[in-house]
Amino acid sequence: MSLTGRTFGPYRVIASLGAGAMGKVYTALDTRLDRQVVLKVLSNLSDRNDLRDRFVREARVVANLNHPHICALYDIGHQEGIDFLVLEHLEGQTLASRLAKGRIPVNDIINYSLDITDALREAHSKRFIHRDIKACQHIHHDFRRREDS
Predict the structure, then answer these.
(1) Burial 76-87 (b: 16+ CB within 10 A, else e)
(2) Which element (helix H / strand E) includes 46?
(3) Residues 128-137: tens digit of each pLDDT
(4) What 3-state class would DSSP assign to 16?
(5) Which domains, and CATH codes, for the chain?
(6) Measured between alpha carbons, how far is 66 from 73 in angstroms, rounded to an integer?
(7) What is the pLDDT of residue 70?
(8) How far apart are CA 62 and CA 86, in angstroms?
(9) pLDDT digit string (tens) for 65-95?
(10) CB of 130 within 8 A of CB of 120?
(11) Which stretches in the chain have pLDDT values below 70?
(12) Cβ neighbours of 39 (radius 10 Å)
């Protein structure tokens, strides 16, 4: 079932980006702020109160993470039996697609590793443990690297 064209609150689904174990991911338009976002529609939480409760708890933690290498969580919602997350839309390529193109220079590997490790350190400091880290989740663009102090 495609959600393209459907509206969830102020978010109008534009196109499918992909699917994973937790659900489907779409680009969407935030009609209030006129910006592109990512809408992640989660699978089958409605009938499991324990999973919905965990989803809300984790969303609250993630929403309070503020780090240049962590995608911002803008909103969560529940409509017509569907739970969803609204995330920052990032331009760029995933680490998985970059790896598919061939060898990555050592300096880039080091920089990617430092960026990812720094983001995980921040998440862990807020008691959030990412349970499913994959190369397809890491989008590489202008990383907005912070200068070391």
Answers:
(1) bebeeebbbbbb
(2) none
(3) 777 667 666 7
(4) strand
(5) 7-140 (3.30.200.20)
(6) 10
(7) 86
(8) 12
(9) 888 888 899 999 999 888 899 999 988 888 8
(10) yes
(11) 45-46, 131-132, 134-136, 138, 140-149
(12) 28
Q: In what order do the strands lie in the sheet with 23-30?
A: 7-8, 11-19, 23-30, 35-42, 82-88, 73-79
73 Cβ neighbours under 8 A, 6+ residues apart? 59, 62, 63, 65, 85, 86, 87, 88
What pLDDT sits at residue 19?
84
- Residue pair 86/43 in contact (Cβ under 8 Å)? The answer is no
pLDDT at site 56: 84
Could you tell me the two tokens for 115? 């960026």
Using DSSP bridges, classify how beta strands 93-94 and 11-19 pair: parallel, antiparallel or unpaired. unpaired
Q: Which of 27, 7, 33 is nearest to 15 (CA)?
A: 27
Report the catalytic residues: 132
CA 27/CA 13 separation, integer angstroms: 6
